[in-house]
Amino acid sequence: MIRLALQDIDKKYGNHTIFSFEKWDLDHGVYWLKGGNGTGKTTLFKMIAGQIPFEGMLTLNDISLKNQPVNYRSMISYAEAEPQYPSFITGNELLNYHIDVRNAGKEASVLLVEALGMSRFMDQKVGSYSSGMLKKLSLICAFVGDIQLYILDEPLITIDKDAAEVLYQLIKTYHEKGCSFLLSSHQELEMNHLPIKQVFKIVDRQLQPC
Predict the structure, then answer these.
(1) Bridge-partner residues for 125, per DSSP?
(2) Where along the chain do its domains lie?
(3) Alpha carbon distance 171, 108 (integer Å)
(4) Pick from 2, 103, 147: nearest CA to 61
(5) Which candidate, 49, 1, 2, places its Cα nearest to that of 184?
(6) Cβ(115)–Cβ(166) below 8 Å
(7) 111-137: pLDDT as tens digits
């Protein structure tokens, strides 16, 4: 179970304020952040994942990103909307890197590779991958290890219907194990397929429930 807490948040790019709010707290659940491109979804997710700087306090299970960055980041997995990897590495090399870094077993990853139809491509260099294959690889790597909070930015873009069904089931299974999810999508999610706890949107630099 998790408790994510953001307090006194201020994020700017130059003179342009992206976020300015006092508080946003989440507990265990699957949350959907709606909104079109350019509304700040990716910026928020990168802030929570500890990838870009901002002003304010951010804690996960009372562990501070700024004071305990390694411990904080070890609890989070972030899958980008449009993943980019070095073209000269193979899918298996990237996956094995994540397995080693997170000190994880391979069994779950092997099953996910098969479920997403990626088995025959994992020894190929990612420079030969289509956008859909890159997306599937990023999701496979995201689900490596013992993670508390999964942040999936636009997880449905470029993947086919069968892969989307695998992802829906994966989210439900991990949620039942006690994991939490932040999902963003400008597409409509299948609400009957996911245990969505709450939906948010970004309005006037703040997060508001829909």
Answers:
(1) 90
(2) 87-146
(3) 14
(4) 2
(5) 49
(6) yes
(7) 999 999 999 999 999 999 999 999 999
Please answer whether residues 34 and 199 qualify as being in contact, where contact means their C-beta atoms are separated by less than 8 angstroms: yes
Cβ atoms 32, 81 nearer than 8 A? no
115, HSE (Cβ side, Cα atoms, 13 Å)? 16
Residue-wise pLDDT for 127-168, tens only, equals: 999 999 999 999 999 999 999 999 999 999 999 999 999 999
* 1 token code pair: 């179970």
d(CA 79, CA 69): 19
Which residues on adjacent β-strands are paired with residue 12?
A: 17
Tell me which amino acid residue 107 is: E
For residue 97 the two structure tokens come to 């890197």
Q: Residue 130 and residue 137: Cα distance in Å, rounded? A: 11
Beta-sheet pairing, 4-13 with 55-60: antiparallel
3-state secondary structure of 136: helix
Give the count of beta carbons closer than 10 Å to the beta carbon of residue 115.
Answer: 18
Sign of CA dihedral 193, 91, 135, 121: negative
Which tokens go with 6?
């953001």
End-to-end CA distance of the chain: 24
Q: Per this entry, what is the length of the chain?
A: 210
HEC profile of 6-31: EEEEEEEECCEEEEEEEEEEECCCEE
